[in-house]
Amino acid sequence: MNNANRMRIICDPFKKEIDYQWYDSNIEDYVEFDPENSKLASDEFMNATIQNRAYEILDIINRECNVGNVGLEIIFIGTDDDYSDFCSVISNYYADANIRCIRENRYYNTAGVVLPKIKDEFSTIKATLEEYTEDNIAKLIFKYNDVVKPSISLCMLGLYSAGKSAFINSIIGSEVLPSASDPTTAKVCKICCGKEYQIRFWFDDKECVLTFAGATYKSNSNFEKAIIKELQRIVASEGQHNEIYHMNRALEILNNYASDGHKISDIIEIRMPFTRTALPTEEFDFVIYDTPGSNSDNNLHHFEVLKDSLDEQTNALPIFLTTPDTMDAEDNDKILRLIEDIGTSLDTTNAIVIINKADEKGSIDLGKKRDKCQSLRITKWKSTRIFFVSSIIALASKKDNPDNADEWLNKDMFEIYGDKA
User: Fold this and answer.
1) Which pTM value belongs to this model?
2) Half-sphere CA count of 325, side-chain side, radius 13 A
3) Are β-strands 29-32 and 216-219 bridged in parallel, bridged antiparallel, or unpaired?
4) What are the pLDDT digits (tens) for 204-256?
5) CA–CA separation, 195 vs 271, rounded Å?
6) What are the strands, taking DSSP E only, across 35-174?
7) In the prediction, which pLDDT does 309 show?
8) Within 13 A of 36's CA, how many CA atoms are on the CB side?
């Protein structure tokens, strides 16, 4: 390929930036792409990652750069994983396009290689840093510890009735979150994978912990007689008696609790085993945030709660849920602006959009929705990936016998599933 077109790609996985350079034979050097003549020079493809955009990048490269029937030689600078992914797309989709990708001697190490070295270096200076009592230094140390620990935060965001709680239930494999809370009173829920079944929150100025085991529960304090009485009534009178059922009902009570002179914290923490999940919980600690639907200004407060909670986090993954009928709703713009205001706590470069309740549309209608996805408001983030799903079908797949109504806490969902099964 001595006479082939030549270009260079530099992928920085830490900044999430990709630089594209064209070889100019007149000056015998690489030059930047012209943003007026190439889509590659747009923010959409420069502020991106290979994992998210490899196929689209190569599609543009093949059309714009692989000209003249002489072939194209790509010099690649990046990590082993990015190089492997890029070459895989070439071999799978562009095998006949006469494109050759060559790894340059310069490269980026993956986080797995770099992290042990960073930890060693940081351990030598951490003791010195901890001598300083300034809040900003303590916060930076906390953020560093958050970055290097094997923890992944997922933030579920979107309009009311998009099915966020049902989607989370399908991910963790249990109907722990009630799915029909009033959006004006519901709380932000923080769901953590753990060995015990617990609900933690603050009642006025006291931390309260409800621990569930089989058909029983216990509280660390008699924080509010009305709540305890309702839980006692549920345990005494209703048929199902297991941790998930009691936690579901307790969360419903807490979401809708209203009493003059008393206040339940805006964020409720849930700890439980993710017993039927596809998440690699043995490898990573997952924390999932469920936010109430925010279709009105009355619910903007929940974003402030989320922002405060995420202030100690870095690069949490935003997952935006909507439905086929609300994909282009104007209220989505409000939420997108609020998400951007949260700042670096949310990694919008790797955002995921979930079109939930896809099972409510026919294949022709869904095809039309899919074809116009990239022009919708919800795809304004760079590198956004879009998935059409059905939370009800996904949740049914986690049940031993989904045709048995007793296995469903939400009977409306059971009826919907029965209509589709």
Assistant:
1) 0.71
2) 9
3) unpaired
4) 888 888 899 988 888 887 666 667 777 777 767 766 678 998 899 888 888 87
5) 8
6) 72-77, 99-103, 151-158
7) 66
8) 0
